[in-house]
Design a protein that fits this description.
Keywords: Decarboxylase, Lyase, Pyridoxal phosphate. The protein is α/β, with parallel strands linked by helices. It has helices at 41-52, 72-81, 93-109, 126-147, 165-173, 192-196, 221-235, 252-255, 323-359, 389-398, 428-447, and strands at 8-10, 17-19, 119-123, 156-160, 177-181, 203-209, 241-244, 268-274, 286-290, 302-304, 311-313, 364-366, 375-380, 405-407, 416-421. The strands form four sheets. Strands 3-9-8-7-6-4-5 form a seven-stranded mixed sheet, sandwiched between helices. α2 runs antiparallel to α9 (323-359), α3 packs parallel to α9 and α9 (323-359) packs across α11. The longest helix is centred in the C-terminal third of the chain and has 37 residues, at 323-359. It is globular and about 70 Å long. The structure holds pyridoxal-5'-phosphate (PLP). The site of pyridoxal-5'-phosphate (PLP) has 14 residues, from α4.
Length: 463
């Protein structure tokens, strides 16, 4: 590593002496104010790299959904294409062409009725995809209301209380009333009957999540659509569905090909997914697609006539990295459907192996089992009083495992769960190490002496 000796270099043109990084001389690094002087690139590199070594080890991170490993060839491709700006479609026409190929492949994967008429774009992640999908819903509703001579100033969006935070942001940023359907008993996600009760003439759409972030279950998209079909028959209200398939968009087509959740359902207007989750690309890419060009109101699409043809763009960002889009195409070519199926199946096998083993431990009860997404949540069994899920999470962290503990959303804040996300690269061997550490953790927590009696409080001290 860096036992670099202290050397100096004269900057071109002046006599500024730039000290080279050594462990013993760099005592503190600038944090609040840009330093006045330059330093050598090696020094800056050493400082930044050393600092991020303090981050957790990604391999032990069972909290994140985001890709932390790709082939060496992908790393090389990344390094060679970091300079590509996605928006520069005339300068990088081939990158733009590759983006279009990815959109067509996803339209096909998600069973768009006419892949040539589907429209979509890469984004920086699902969050941007949700914003765009939600905006299109809002605009289409406004147009329809205006055309019917009805008020269009009070739009609402119906979704489960378990939605990812991006939908709260969407509602706040774009002035849409969020209609959260509360959890109920064992219903820890949106169900059809509960969704429909929240819908009215001001509803721009219903969000169904393919893979609840909270515990990994798929919301019943087909049932939600059927309930909305029925509502339309009875009331004439035609409410579209956006599927938030952040994780499931790259899992269900491979592991649950018979599950009908996508454009096979005529009511599904748009779908977004995170290329950087189970799409198996490093952070920075997502996708959003609309069933038909007409699902995306024209005024939201800006036409740029680079390339001689018309290039539609619809995005919040202007400049953004193009390399991730190339990496997505790399994965599509490299893995094909078989490769994606094999990887997601391995993740699921590991997830189910883990959840079964935890189910057999008297300390825990499963909340979900990893058979939808390779993600599951578990909680402390009722009899466990000495320690909590938070203690287990903290204890596992000592061994490097990041397993978040949190309360479920309203009405089930009483339920504290631990969640495990199995990603590509989390092997059966690591799973067994993890189980061993879970057993050690609960034994240690169980063996703790009863809490020390509280010290006498000073007289006159009240909480
Ligand atoms: C992760 C996630 C998002 C946000 O996706 P990003 O790609 O991180 O922006 C939205 N919805 C769900 C269900 C998610 O799991």
């Amino acid at each position: 590593m860096t036992g670099i000796s202290s050397t100096t270099k004269r900057a071109a043109g002046d006599l500024t002496v730039l000290p080279r990084f050594t462990r013993d001389t760099v005592v503190s690094v600038p944090k609040d104010r840009m330093p006045d002087q330059e330093m050598l690139p090696q020094s800056a590199y050493g400082i930044v790299r050393d600092e991020v070594m303090l981050d957790g080890n990604a391999r032990f991170n069972l909290a994140t959904f985001v890709t932390t490993w790709m082939d060496d060839e992908a790393d090389r491709l990344y390094a060679e294409t970091v300079d590509k700006n996605m928006v520069d479609k005339d300068e990088y026409p081939q990158t733009a062409e590759i983006e279009s190929r990815c959109v067509r492949m996803l339209a096909d994967l998600w069973n768009a009725p006419d892949a040539a008429d589907a429209i979509g774009t890469s984004t920086t992640g699902s969050s941007e995809g949700c914003m765009l999908g939600g905006l299109a819903l809002k605009r289409r509703w406004q147009h329809a209301r205006r055309a019917a001579g009805k008020p269009f100033d009070r739009p609402n969006l119906v979704m489960g209380q378990n939605v990812q935070v991006v939908w709260e942001k969407f509602a706040e940023y774009w002035d849409v009333e969020p209609r959260y359907v509360p959890l109920e008993g064992d219903d820890l996600y949106l169900t059809a009957d509960r969704a429909v009760r929240f819908v009215d003439e001001n509803t721009i759409g219903v969000v169904a999540i393919l893979g609840s972030t909270m515990e990994g279950s798929y919301e019943p998209v087909a049932q939600i659509c059927a309930a909305l079909d029925e509502l339309e028959e009875q009331t004439g209200l035609n409410v579209p569905v956006h599927v938030d398939a952040a994780s499931g968009g790259f899992v269900a087509p491979f592991l649950q090909p018979d599950l009908v959740w996508d454009f096979r359902l005529p009511r599904v207007a748009s779908i977004q997914a995170s290329g950087h989750k189970y799409g198996l690309v490093y952070p920075g890419v997502g996708w959003v697609l609309w069933r038909h060009t007409e699902n995306l109101p024209e005024e939201l699409v800006f036409k740029v006539n680079y390339l001689g043809g018309n290039m539609p763009t619809f995005a919040l960002n202007f400049s953004r990295p193009g390399a991730q889009v190339l990496l997505q195409y790399f994965q599509f070519l490299r893995l094909g459907r078989d490769g994606y199926r094999r990887i997601q199946q391995t993740c699921q096998d590991v997830a189910v192996h883990l959840s079964e083993a935890l189910k057999d431990m008297p300390e825990f009860e499963l909340v979900s089992d990893g058979r939808d997404l390779p993600v599951f949540a578990f909680r402390m069994a009722d009899g466990i009083r000495k320690y909590t899920a938070y203690d287990v999470s903290r204890k596992l962290r000592e061994r490097g495992w990041l397993v978040p503990a949190y309360t479920m959303p309203p009405n089930r804040e009483d339920l504290v769960v631990l969640r495990v996300v199995v990603r590509n690269g989390f092997s059966h061997d690591m799973a067994d190490l993890f189980l061993r550490d879970v057993r050690v953790a609960v034994e240690w927590l169980d063996g703790l002496a009863a809490p020390m009696p509280q010290e006498e409080e000073p007289a006159g001290f009240h909480h």
